[in-house]
Each structure stands twice: as C-alpha cells, then as structure tokens.
Amino acid sequence: MPVTVEIPVEKFRGAVRQVTLGAGPDASGTRDSVVTVGGQTSLPFLFFEGKTPNQPRVAIEINESAPDGISPLLAEAWGDVVADPAAWAAKAEQLGAELILLKVQDGSERSLRPSDLVARVKAILGATGLPLIVVGPGVAARDNELLVAVADATAGERLALGRCEEGNYRTIVAAAMANGHAVIAATPIDVNLAKQLNILIRDMNLPLDRVLMDPTTGALGYGLEYTYSVMERLRLAALQGDEMTQQPMICFAGHETWRQKETRGGEGLPAEWGDSQRRAVLWEAVTAGSLLQSGADILVLKHPQAVALVKENIAVLMRQ
Fold first, then answer.
1. What are phi and psi for residue 161, nearest 5 degrees?
2. How many CA atoms lie within 13 A of 114 on its CB side?
3. How would DSSP label each residue in 220-262?
4. Positions of E strands within the chain
5. What is residue 268's predicted lDDT score, i.e. its pLDDT?
6. What DSSP designation does 294 have?
7. pLDDT at position 108, please?
8. How far is the C-alpha of 162 from the C-alpha of 293, rounded, in Å?
9. Per residue in 32-80, pLDDT tens?
10. CA Rg, the chain, in Å?
11. Contact criterion met (CB below 8 Å) for 22 and 157
C-alpha cells in the first residue's frame, strides 16, 4: 500500500536585505550593469521553503599595480595585464566576472598617493561596465585617506568601499553616505561582533540596504568549518527576524585560498598531491562552493578557471 510522506517545510518570518551595487545612467552612474544580491527568505537553494530572488554573484579580485608575491599559477593565468589595472579589469569581465574588486596592496614600503589611486579607479570604470568594489590596504589611516578620495571622485557610481571595522568605520561610512556608495562591514568570524558593527553603521544613518557583511573567510583546510558555522548562524538569525544580521554576505575566498601552500606550487611538496594547477584551482572552487552553501551572496575569486567552475556550480544550484 503506497505511503504518503509529507516533507516538512520550514517557513521563516525574516528575509535578507537586498543590496544593489553599481549605478547606470538612469541613476547618475555610468555602469552598463548593476548587481543586486540578497532577498532570500530561506536557507541557500531550498526553493521549496522560500524565495531566492537574486542568485549569488562572482567578483574577480585585481590590484592597483602588479601584485607583490603573486602565485606563479595566477601570474601565468593573467599574463601581462597584472601591470595595468584597467586592462586587468577588462580581461576579468571577458572571463566571467560579474563584479570587479580592486584590492589596494599599498604597504609600508610604498606610498600610493590618493590622486594616483583615483586615476586608476577611473581608468577601471572606463575599461569595464561592471560594478566596482574598492578595498583598502587594511591600515586604518591609509584606508581613510585612500577610500575617501575614491568615494569623492566616483560620487553616484554606487561602489562598495571596505573594509569597515569597529575601530575604523566612521570615516568610510561618512564618505559612502556623502557620495551614494555602499560599504563592507568586516568582523573576525563572530556572530555578535557582526551584529554590533551593523548596529554602529546603522546608528550613523547609513541605510542598511547599502551594507554588505564580511564575516571573514577561511580556506579549505584552514578553518573553513568555523567560517561555515558562523555564516550559517548569521543566516539563520536573519531568517528568524534579527534585523541586524540581515545583510548579504561577501566572502574573499580567493584571497584566503591563494595564500596557502596547497595553491602556491613550488618545490618540496609531496608528489602524491598531484598537478599543482589542478589542485590550486579546485582548492579555490571547493572553498567557494562550500561558502555558497552557508549563505555567501558575493564570492571574490582570483583564478579564471575557478570562476568558471563556481559560476557553473551556481547555475546548477539555481535550477528549480
């Protein structure tokens, strides 16, 4: 006798906020395309439980100049364009990027002038019609100096500026408010810290539909399960109605992956590890694929082959 099995369906009262990056001519910008993420009312890809109006998106990370210490595998994949950020951005768009992320690598041994960075940002905006994310070098004083100049020079383009941290968010948030940009709120793998920073940013009166959340990402084999757990808890809290966790999440999977020994190749690695390029690309793609399942809305990647694999994975997961 046939038995009817009723599949339990969980309905949530909350939803992830929608955040749009990039502005076209109708919104005082110059972008050919804009990207909207968020809006989910269920856990990732559980379409029978809720809505997923916007699919996860893939950004490609580039630098403002030829990157220091780049992996030979990445150098081979990108070629000479790494010396020209505008050409790099254009090639990234050709190879499947849906957003461009410019990571400023300015360090203590070199001092990039704000005017020089502004010129490179404008060149990138001229070379590609994709939305742009700009992330500073991670030193508070330099982040403030560089990102404020970029924000002022690109008013109306709706960039995402980062990273805002608890000790260094006020200046970046103020610049974003004044120029119509979004920000990235970054915290070190902790649900309560992520909530607190979102509260602080909201208290400055920046609308929360202009805030992305970076919960900090670990690579495969380097704390990925801890990242996954925190992201899953953030997403569950958002769906259960906690307004301060309802921001879309951006994850720097490429950065974390390509600084590990498993992806950098070189001598002295066990032969049983196999081909270094195949291993490196898969390490990045598997890291990104895992983060998709924990709620990532924007994945920032580095290798073109990993981009292709992750976009294919997203396409399969989005089939209903």
1. -115, 140
2. 14
3. TTTTHHHHHHHHHHHHHHHHTT-GGG-S-EEE-HHHHHTTSHH
4. 19-21, 35-37, 57-63, 99-103, 132-135, 160-164, 182-186, 211-214, 249-251, 296-301
5. 66
6. T
7. 47
8. 24
9. 999 999 999 999 999 999 999 999 999 999 999 888 888 889 999 999 9
10. 19
11. yes
Averaged pLDDT for residues 76-103: 97
What's the CA gap between 280 and 263, in Å, rounded?
Answer: 4
Distance, CA of 275 to CA of 45 (rounded, Å): 33
Amino acid at 244: M
Going by C-alpha positions, the residue among 98, 19, 42 that lies closest to residue 320 is 42
Separation CA 161–CA 83 (nearest Å): 23
For 128-144, the pLDDT digits (tens) are: 999 999 999 998 889 99
The DSSP code for 85 is H
Q: Tell me which residue has tokens 């809290």.
A: 237
Q: Which amino acid is at 240?
A: Q
How far is the C-alpha of 295 from the C-alpha of 290, rounded, in Å? 9
Amino acid 107: pLDDT: 60
C-beta of residue 80 within 8 angstroms of C-beta of residue 274: no
**Secondary structure (3-state) at 263:** helix
Residue 299: strand, helix, or coil? strand
What does residue 133 show for φ and ψ, rounded to 5 degrees? Answer: -115, 135
> What token pair was written down for 146?
């560089």
Q: Distance between CA 117 and CA 103 in Å, rounded? A: 11
- Rounded to 5 degrees, φ, ψ at 127 are -90, -20
Mean pLDDT of 215-241: 95
**Using an 8 Å Cβ cutoff, are 43 and 272 in contact?**
no
Count the alpha carbons within 13 Å of 31 in the hemisphere toward its beta carbon: 24
What does the angle CA 285 – CA 71 – CA 307 come to, to the nearest 5 degrees? Answer: 25
Q: Hey, which residues does 101 pair with through a beta bridge?
A: 61, 133
Domains of the chain from N-terminus onward: 21-33+51-317 (3.20.20.20)
Handedness of CA 144, 147, 149, 154 (dihedral sign): negative
Count the residues in the chain. Answer: 320
Res 270 pLDDT > 80 = no
